Amino acid sequence: MKKLIKLEINGENFDLAIDPTAYLIDVIRETVGLCGTKKGCGIGDCGACTVLINGRPALSCLTLAVACTGKTITTIEGLSKGTELHPVQRAFIDKGAVQCGFCTPGMVLSSKALLDENPHPGRDEIKTALAGNLCRCTGYAKIVEAVEHAGQLLSGEVNHD
Q1: Please, what are the domains in the chain?
Q2: What's the longest Cα–Cα distance across the chain?
Q3: Which residue, of 90, 126, 153, 159, has the fewest CB within 10 Å?
Q4: Does this model's pTM top 0.85?
Q5: What's the distance, CA 71 to chain centroid?
Q6: Residue 32 and residue 78 in contact, taking contact as beta carbons nearer than 8 Å
Q7: Taking the CA of residue 9 as centre, how many other CA atoms within 13 Å lie in the half-sphere pointing to its CB?
Q8: Which residues contact 24 (CB under 8 A, 6 or more apart)?
């Protein structure tokens, strides 16, 4: 039996009839049609499915969609304003922190949440904030540089490269 819920995703309201056991990742990708959130391990280990719920990183593969009623959900598609990239997205490009791109949406959203709380995190704070996001391509050095650069972009200390 389907359950009627309302979700706010990227500032848009959705009235949905879903299975009450549906995970947020599946509702975002299959029902709403936003495919930027990646479906990786399905058990909360990789972080590819990270979204922001009320501004905090959350694993959408472990979160029931019905639990998100009344909350604000942000996916990677919700960061940019039209063709204008969010500074965190821009920093990942500027610093070459994107390889295959599979982990990138989760990394970017976790980075944004960190920078919203602490605009000038140290390297150890960045590593801690990104610990739940796995990357098999980059070795993380460029990702950490990108987060540092994003903090500088957000504070107006530098322009993008």
Answers
A1: 3-75 (3.10.20.30), 87-155 (1.10.150.120)
A2: 53
A3: 159
A4: yes
A5: 15
A6: no
A7: 25
A8: 51, 58, 60, 61, 63, 64, 65, 68, 73
